[in-house]
Amino acid sequence: MAFNLKGRHLLTLADYTPREIEYLIDSAIDLKNLKRAGVFPKNLVNKNIALIFEKPSTRTRCAFVVACNDEGAFPEYLGKNDIQIGKKESIADTAAVLGRMFDGIQFRGFKHESVEGLAKHAGVPVWNGLTDKYHPTQILADFMTVKENFGRIKGIKFAYVGDGRNNMANSLLIGAAKMGMDFRIVAPADLFPEQAIQELAATFAAESGAVLTYTDQVGDGVAGCDVLYTDVWASMGEEDQIPDRIAKLKPFQVNQAMVDATQNEEVIFLHCLPAFHNDETELSRQFPDICEVTDEVFSGKRSRVFDQAENRMHTIKAVMVATLA
């Protein structure tokens, strides 16, 4: 069933119904199949897309650029040194100007209030490419990968392990509650999501039948799960906290013992990337215990991290087509 999402923003999945989320994921799967068949519908010809990046990016930037090019749109990258948003020009004024020139705006930055301000004043669809609070385009790619592997999203047993109060944990919690999953946050108790987000997720779970669990007991949290998911232990801008996070989160490292503890031979491993899983980065050489996942798991047969990374592009394309075309 098609949905009319034209003109809609994507700031958080809390604003979308389960059927709308499923529609975006199914559209992404269709667009992925078309691309692999060499078919490009060019749904966005003559559309111009502003890409605002306060934070650097690999997957989000590349996904938006390739998606734009595939569909016939023109992407304009605006880095932190290219635009004066919130510094010399207010967010409202910036939004009003960009909305007169562009058909859609992507924002990747720090404060969630910034992307909300853009959406309020731009007059065109605004998409959240990441804020400190939410990362909805990533969750669409995650759930697309889940559906490709299991044929469904509802009822999937999904364990997120590690830092349970970052933007990935928040976003997965909201998305899982919307989609009726058996979702577990497995983290130290002082790193559970903030109470307001737990309460919001609980309202969605009451409607969808989702089961939401918060536990600091790794064995109980991962038992029987279909998906193991983790993220870096210190988010961008938190590098000064790395030693403390290592000490606190080392017991929550995703390793082969944790995979075995799921007692599910079909379990898959997901990660939003970038990941610390070996000694081939500057930080992992400086902090040898920083790896939130072992290379054995990250590079192993249950890992789907690069399928998941590719799916960022297909789901972002689906969002742009649905809200613009």
From TrEMBL:
InterPro entries: Asp/Orn_carbamoyltranf_P-bd (IPR006132), Asp/Orn_carbamoylTrfase (IPR006130), Asp/Orn_carbamoylTrfase_sf (IPR036901), Asp_carbamoyltransf_Asp/Orn-bd (IPR006131), Orn/put_carbamltrans (IPR002292), OTCase_ArgI (IPR024904). Pfam families: OTCace, OTCace_N. One of its GO terms (biological process) is L-arginine biosynthetic process via ornithine. It comes from the Bacteria. GO terms for molecular function: amino acid binding; ornithine carbamoyltransferase activity. The keyword Cytoplasm applies. Residues 154-322 form the Aspartate/ornithine carbamoyltransferase Asp/Orn-binding domain. Its EC number is 2.1.3.3. Keywords: Cytoplasm, Transferase. It is found in: Cytoplasm. It is an enzyme of class 2 (transferase). Carbamoyl phosphate binds at S57, T58, R59, T60, Q84, R108, H135, P136, T137, Q138, C272, L273, R312. It catalyses: carbamoyl phosphate + L-ornithine = L-citrulline + phosphate + H(+). One of its GO terms (cellular component) is cytoplasm. Residues 8-148 form the Aspartate/ornithine carbamoyltransferase carbamoyl-P binding domain. Belongs to the aspartate/ornithine carbamoyltransferase superfamily. OTCase family. This is Ornithine carbamoyltransferase.
